Amino acid sequence: MSLLTLENVTLKFGGVTAVNNLSMSVNEGEVFALVGPNGAGKSTVFNMISRFYTPVRGSIAFDGHDLLKRKPSQVPSLGIARTFQNIELFERATVLQNLLVGRHRHRKTTLVEEMFFIGRTREQERQHRHAVEEVIDFLDLQAYRDKMIAGLPYGVRKVVELARALATKPRLLLLDEPASGLSVEETQDMRWWIDDIRRQMGITVLMVEHDMGLVSKVCDRVLALADGAKLAEGSPAEVQAHPAVIEAYLGTAAISKTANAKGERV
Amino acid sequence: MRFHFKTSYDQDIRLFPDWWNFSLYALLLVLLLVMPWLIDDFYLGEMTNVLIWAVAGLGLMILTGQTGLVSLGHSAFMALGCYLTVNFMDTGMPFLLAFVLAGVVTGVVGAIVAIPALKLHGVYLSIFTLALAILADDIIVILDHWTGGVNGIYAPEIWIFGFEINRWAMPASWYYLALGTALFVTLIYRNLLRAPLGRAFAAVRDSEISAQAMGVDVARTKTLAFGFSCAFAGMGGALMGLFAGAFNNETFNFLLAIQLLMMIIIGGLGFIHGAFLGAIVIAFLPQLLAIGTDTLGINSVPGLETGVFGMILIAFILFEPMGLYGRWLKIRTWLELFPFARRDMFRRQKTYLKTERLR
Amino acid sequence: MDVLQLLLSGLANGCVYGLVALGFVLIYKATEAVNFAQGDFMMLGAYVMVGLVNPEFLGLNFWVAVPLALLILGALGYLLDLTVIRFMFGQSQTSVVILTIALGYVIRFAAGLIWGHEPVNLHSPLALGDVRMGGVVLSLADIAVIVVTLLMTLFLFQFFQRTKLGLAMQAASQNQMAAYYMGIPVRRVQGAVWALAGVVACVAGILYASKGTLAISAGFIGIKAFAAAVIGGFGSLPGALMGGIIVGVIEPFAARYLPTGYSQIAPYALLILVLVFRPHGLFAQVRVKKV
């Protein structure tokens, strides 16, 4: 069943067409990757789903809801969470506070209840904390719980951002380059986590990633983008072998080389 | 060195994490309550002043320290709170009701004023609010039917449940009024901080974009921050005007707003303690300087207070941007870790400024 | 004729605002910092001039004193950067704003200490003559203000567009780290900007003092100049001048045609309107954060 559907989406910045007539659909329960060279429009697709950008044409639907009718801050309440390419954490707050912000969409208290800390507020805080602790356990962040973000190393920040997205209890998780800047071991961890997020939590994952090693290990389907348009779609192996993809990445010379190696002419 | 084991989530949720912490603040409260018996009337008046500044400072702190919006115009809202209180009292309303209602109305006005300013960032917002403060000065003169214009208003008598609050006849009564207000405001401030709204404030301060991605409505959060901030500032302003005995447009000049901002920076941005520490500095600095010039045998120097205040602020921004409370936190950590604290533990990371201006 | 007279005197006032606004924009363009003390710099420049020229102080010849005063203010601007502003390198914009507000307090205090709090008049040759054209009377000082301001704007505009230092200043503001990598001595460039801002402030101060009485509170003109800079759009030199002229011209007209009490409101009301409807001024630069 298709959870997220983009149909004929086009986005322009001034005269530049960043995304050109793109259609794609992510099924419930799968891990889907967007790949492509720098500037292909991958993050732009994310930013459209998060509603930071509005396409000039086309439609985006999530689980039957028209996303284009929502404000950016209403998107998470549908069950969509995301991370950012250049980590966007709340720097002057602790890890715990960052994750608790992730629970924002689940709050039920009114302003007056929060002002005087009466009614459901205290019980709600306990529940939020409980949910957040589950995420902390899942991602092994116990040691950093009360640390300020400003002092954390890059790799940990990356995990905290993933944790914050998970704290929202999403149905769809958008990961913007989850492995960029991570060491080999950290990338390995990320791979297990993405697997577990899908298997144990049943969360659908849409990610942008350059590391084809990671993509081919965790993804069910891959869509290759170049210059804002779809190049190829299919299983990781199919997309990697697709001539148009190889051309976009390595240029035409490379394609004839691979072809020659196979003893064929293009 | 005190170890801190947490055994329940409630320890992070309730007002005081443990008994030790609770006892410290209980002791402080007792000390504040018996203050009128410990110090003479003059210093009790100064303490009242400290608490009044702290109330207004907590108002600005919510906006600037928690939500990251720098206002140079809070004098306008202090004025509004003060004139509203007096005008409500003129209709025969009892003081306490007029005072709280004035705070609420000021908050609502502040929230409405914030709406056109929602898109303004950084310095632009500061200029917008500064313009409001300057306008407020002129508007007070124009609306002289309600405000008394440049001639000002003499503070009316204040009665709370048949008990007169009078600065001259009974200084302690004013002190307790200010203390009660400060405690009330502090409690609401603390409650907000441990509730979702307080975290939304911090989220908006640190990254609007990812706050939205977490479902925080940035416009609503900023409007609420303005509302609470202006409500507290209005209550602070009402106390300030009434305590002074007489006030006019000059009392709530835009320089007051700038002083208020400087005060919370010296105290420590983003900390409740910061508002109180800053208020102590602003209230006692004139006394300290007077004692200083007296002992040196010089006549009073005009503008000395503001000059020295400016220099103190420059020193803080250069050497301790976290303010007095930030410095105390460092000292405390150093003591707790003694002798294991490292020198570079608090070193600031080198940062480079990048423009958000794109062509 | 009445309208023309109002327009011209407004223009002269507006040029002073414009000059102070130029100082704001100069520093903003080059360092991304906003100098709230620019008005107090102007006041300081005027008082330095008074100290050099007026008989009760040094009593120098006016034309000898002008380059001296410019030099002193330039040096002060550079020293200020060297001793204070430089340590703010890379800090957020708002901390620099607050720092410069505090700096304004200190400058006003120091000036009051040195020159006293009584208003003074600068002995300026510009303050003497009037020029009559038809029914319009313009003082020599007004004409000097307009001419000097136009020349100054033209010079600064060319400086930023054409010279190597000017381009380096722009680069340094937009991305400090990248500018470093490109071999631009970012710190020294910033020092040069503050010196230049000091000189511009001094020019404004001399002209301001030639037009009328000078007091310590003259520094608060900075707020009106600030409004001017915002109305024109921060970051644009011609915009700053235009903003200054708009504010300057509105004032006499408001004073003439609006009831008393309402006239002072006009520039700030305009400022608020501009901020609400054209938040980045009439000569805007777009602000978008990329994620």
What report would you give on this structure?
The complex is a heterotrimer of chains A (266), B (359) and C (291). In chain A, 39% of the residues lie in helices and 23% in strands. Chain A is of the alpha/beta class and 266 residues long. In chain A, the strands form 2 sheets. In chain A, strands 6-7-8-3-9-10 form a 6-stranded mixed beta sheet, sandwiched between helices. In chain A, strand 9 and strand 10 form a beta hairpin. In chain A, helix 3 runs parallel beside helix 6, helix 5 crosses helix 6 and helix 10 crosses helix 11 (252-261). Chain B has a single domain (36-287), classed as ABC transporter involved in vitamin B12 uptake, BtuC (Orthogonal Bundle). Helices cover 70% and strands 3% of the residues of chain B. Chain B has helices at residues 10-13, 19-33, 35-38, 41-66, 74-90, 95-117, 122-142, 144-147, 171-193, 196-206, 208-213, 218-244, 254-267, 272-296, 304-319, 323-337; strands spanning 153-154, 158-160, 163-165, 246-247. In chain B, helix 4 crosses helix 14, helix 13 crosses helix 14 and helix 13 (254-267) packs parallel to helix 16. With 291 residues, chain C is mainly α. Chain C has one domain (2-218). Chain C is built from 11 helices and 2 strands, in the order ααααββααααααα. Chain C has helices at residues 2-31, 38-53, 62-83, 93-115, 140-162, 164-174, 176-181, 186-211, 221-232, 237-257, 265-277; strands at 130-133, 136-139. In chain C, helix 2 packs across helix 9 and helix 5 packs across helix 6. In chain C, 54% of the residues are buried. The chains are: A alpha/beta (266), B mainly alpha (359), C mainly alpha (291). Chains in contact: A-B, A-C, B-C. Chains B and C meet through helix 7, helix 13 and helix 15 of B and helix 4, helix 7, helix 9 and helix 11 of C.
By oligomeric state, this entry counts as heterotrimer
Radius of gyration computed on alpha carbons of chain B: 21 Å
How many DSSP-defined strands of chain A? 10
| Alpha-carbon distance between the two ends of chain A | 38 Å
CATH class value of chain B: Mainly Alpha
Q: CATH-wise, what's the superfamily of the largest domain in chain A?
A: P-loop containing nucleotide triphosphate hydrolases
- Helix/strand structural class of chain B: mainly alpha
Query: Any idea of the CATH topology of chain B?
Result: ABC transporter involved in vitamin B12 uptake, BtuC
Provide the low-confidence segments of chain A as ranges.
262-266
- Per DSSP, the total helix count of chain A is 11
Class based on secondary structure composition and strand pairing of chain A: alpha/beta
Unreliable residue stretches of chain B: 352-359
Q: What is the CATH C level class of the largest domain in chain A, in words?
A: Alpha Beta
Main sheet properties of chain B: 2 strands, antiparallel
The general outline of chain A is: globular
